[in-house]
Amino acid sequence: MTIYFTVTNDLGFDQRMMRICTSLSQAGYKVVLVGRRLKKSVPLKEVDYSQQRLRCWFNKGKLFYAEYNLRLFFYLLFKKMDCICAIDLDSILPCLFISRIKRTKRVYDAHELFCEMKEIATRPGIQKFWKKIEQYAVPQFKAGYTVNQPIAEEFYRMYGSKFGVIRNVPVFNEPGTIQKKEKYILYQGAVNEGRCFETLIPAMAAVDCKLVVCGDGNFMQQAKLLTKGYQLEDKVIFKGNVAPDELRIITAQAYIGLNLVENNGLSNYLSLANKFFDYIHAGIPQLCSGYPAYKEINDITEVAVMITDMSDKNIAAALNNLLLNEVVYQRLQNNCPKAATIYNWQNEENILLEFYQQLLG
């Protein structure tokens, strides 16, 4: 059985897709992951599945999405497949049309509520455009899964689509001893709108610790300008995109992890980011937004300090408490290994394989 997965990002940093494709490939499926090539794309690592990157003339905005979807459609048109899986809304139309033409199974993997992301929800014209695509396409995907139960329930409320839940969690490995050379706070993930950089960066002026940012995104330029404006260039370090193997080392050596998102859209409010679990598996306490999916897990495991007030003063106070209160820090740190034995890819992989076994036989 051959399964094609489609994304709009560079394949070298998408850990969720790496795990999904590896698990299915090792289970005997022929897997092809299709993404795009950027000017700064690094060579892809050799993996158990096939990888294909499409080069575009345009790399952002309406022209990019139009071009990429056309290129993706014609690329897929001449490929043999038994199933095609669209990752998020920005590659759903080619997958829908190809599955009809080829009469193959189709799956929707929703990493988030696409139309409710800040960069979409705060632009009425753009949101209306994507919402029309969502309303047209999503109900036609009878098989699908997403990253947590609240988002699955939202899709059922909107479209009657019963999506499964496959969490975006790391592979469990027995924790080793990591020597922490320098105490620093870590933010990993997309540097996008709605990730609290407008308040996080000024908060660092009142925190006696460095902030390391690993990632890139549509707010990177503004974040760097904020850092310069507050004269924090020596305290806030931007590393850009970091390869997964290197990122795991950086994460394990950090003292505190950050997982903050603004409550300005349903996608953020219902989110369950992979970094939440990455910090758990690295054994580091984190400062996290106190939204339902995170709070549900934290009420059981207590691995994070939760806040709902994302002001710079509140972020600074919460970070300083973690830095200075050794009793709280140690309690959270001790709970991380226990949580990692519950929330790991070995458990989620079983759900993934059962899903495709039932779909494809």
Gross CATH architecture of the largest domain: 3-Layer(aba) Sandwich
Beta-strand content estimate: 15-25%
Principal-axis shape = globular
CATH topology of the largest domain: Rossmann fold
Give structural notes.
The chain has two domains: 185 residues, 3-Layer(aba) Sandwich (Rossmann fold), CATH 3.40.50; 157 residues, Glycogen Phosphorylase B (Rossmann fold, 3-Layer(aba) Sandwich), CATH 3.40.50.2000. The chain is globular and about 60 Å long. 45% of the residues lie in helices and 17% in strands. It is built from 15 helices and 13 strands. The protein is α/β, with parallel strands linked by helices. It has a seven-stranded parallel beta sheet with strand order 3-2-1-4-5-6-7, sandwiched between helices.
List the helices and strands and how they pair.
Blueprint: E1 2-6, H1 15-26, E2 30-37, E3 50-55, H2 61-77, E4 83-87, H3 92-102, E5 105-110, H4 118-121, H5 124-137, E6 143-146, H6 149-159, E7 164-165, E8 184-188, H7 197-203, E9 210-214, H8 220-229, E10 236-240, H9 244-253, E11 256-259, H10 266-269, H11 274-282, E12 286-289, H12 292-301, E13 304-307, H13 312-324, H14 326-340, H15 345-360
Parallel strand pairs: 1-2, 1-4, 2-3, 4-5, 5-6, 6-7, 8-9, 8-11, 9-10, 11-12, 12-13
Helix pairs in contact: 1-15, 2-3, 7-13, 9-11, 11-14
